[in-house]
Design a protein that fits this description.
- The chain has a seven-stranded parallel beta sheet. Strands 11-10-12-13 form a four-stranded mixed beta sheet, with helices on one face. The chain has a two-stranded antiparallel sheet with strand order 7-9.
- α7 links the parallel β5 and β6.
- The chain has two domains: about 260 residues, Aldolase class I (TIM Barrel); about 60 residues.
- The radius of gyration is 22 Å and the shape is globular.
- α9 crosses α11.
- The protein is about 40% helix and about 20% strand.
- It contains 13 helices and 13 strands.
- The chain binds iron/sulfur cluster (SF4).
- Iron/sulfur cluster binds next to loops.
């Protein structure tokens, strides 16, 4: 598998299979839209794998990766792991599938499990790290520690797996300081990618009970966007890919949402806020430089404008766009912008970090 190419992921959900208990925030049936113990309308996961993969043609086989999400894969019995991985094997042998990825808990990684994964074609392991603070982990009912996560990331990387880390924003007992400290620790471990999820209070979860008893207060949408924005900046600066921010709007998610910072385009809100922040700082810095044009990458136009042009309005209200024309340019790449013509030293002004 060429890791530089973005894989085309075909996901299968093993809803809560292998989980030793329910973490307080979790309800996989709602998150993934898949009910029961991994079956969809009575069809087993193995049957789903076989029938879905049989539909594959031979387009881009080098990029197709099968994923098992929604449970704790390496907590399953070896027999069950072999059964699921074995269902993909014929499609790997025929070259239609390049590799497999699984998600699991940090306290379920050891040599025997890694051996099975490696010889079955698993190249990528996503770890539900969620937090790197032991008190937050305990209050969230995770049942593992920060040390488990650190060890799991290191062990998997040393064994040659691609490693992803999932972090949550706004877990019980978590504030900005703990969130940021944990994110820095995770960045130091150099995972290959991360996913960032704001905590939502979902029906059927223990968190919904705590919320009703007023023992848990979810983060507001603004707070979650600020927290996630900071994490995104941190991981970007370290060259660690953030492959998802916010839950995918699965069927039933909005129906079962009790409270919390849900937005169907959460990731876009974060990108929009981060870009606004960078542009604002740059415009302030070069206010007296005679800059006449703010050029934004055309692919970032909607992110830059924000919902109902809110970012443009904010910059105007701050007086930062007086005498400055905003243009959108095809030749700029994502996240790049330029303030022209030149700065006070006579240099072209471009994309400050
Ligand atoms: S968060 Fe992960 S380990 Fe916890 S219940 Fe959900 S799927 Fe299982």
């Amino acid at each position: 598998m060429d890791f530089k190419l973005k894989p085309i992921i075909i996901p299968f959900f093993i809803s809560h299979e292998g989980c030793p208990h329910r973490c307080v925030f979790c309800n996989q049936q709602v998150i993934t839209g898949v009910s029961g113990t991994g079956g969809l309308s009575g069809v087993t996961v193995v049957d789903q794998v076989r029938s879905r993969l049989a539909e594959l043609n031979e387009v881009s086989p080098a990029r197709i990766q099968v994923a098992f999400y929604g449970g704790s894969f390496t907590c399953l019995s070896f027999e069950r792991q072999r059964e699921l991985l074995g269902a993909v094997r014929p499609f790997m042998d025929s070259g239609q599938v390049a590799s497999i990825r699984i998600s699991t808990r940090p306290d379920a990684i050891d040599q025997a499990r890694m051996d099975l994964l490696a010889k079955s074609g698993v190249t990528t392991v996503e770890l539900g790290i969620q937090s790197l603070d032991d008190q937050v982990l305990a209050e969230s009912g995770r049942g593992h520690t920060t040390a488990d996560s650190i060890k799991a990331v290191r062990t998997l990387k040393d064994a040659g797996f691609q490693v992803g880390g999932q972090l949550m924003i706004g877990l019980p007992g978590e504030g900005f300081a703990r969130l940021y400290r944990g994110a820095r620790q995770l960045a130091d471990l150099r995972p290959d990618f991360v996913r960032l999820y704001p905590v939502l209070v979902l029906g059927g979860s223990r968190l919904a009970v705590l919320y009703r008893e007023q023992r848990y207060r979810p983060w507001s949408l603004v707070r979650a966007v600020i927290g996630c924005g900071w994490l995104k900046q941190l991981f970007d600066a370290q060259g660690i890919r953030v492959i998802r921010m916010g839950l995918q709007a699965a069927s039933g998610l909005e129906d079962e949402l009790v409270a919390g910072p849900y937005h169907p385009a959460f990731g876009e809100l974060v990108l929009s806020r981060n870009l606004l922040k960078r542009v604002r700082i740059a415009l302030r810095r070069y206010r007296n430089s005679g800059a006449k044009t703010l050029a934004i990458a055309a692919c970032d136009e909607s992110v830059f404008r924000g919902a109902d042009n809110i970012n443009l309005l904010r910059l105007r209200r701050l007086g930062l766009l007086e005498g400055v024309e905003v243009v959108f340019r095809q030749d700029l790449t994502r996240n790049q912008f330029m303030i022209s013509p030149v700065d006070e030293r006579g240099y072209p002004i471009s994309s400050p970090p």
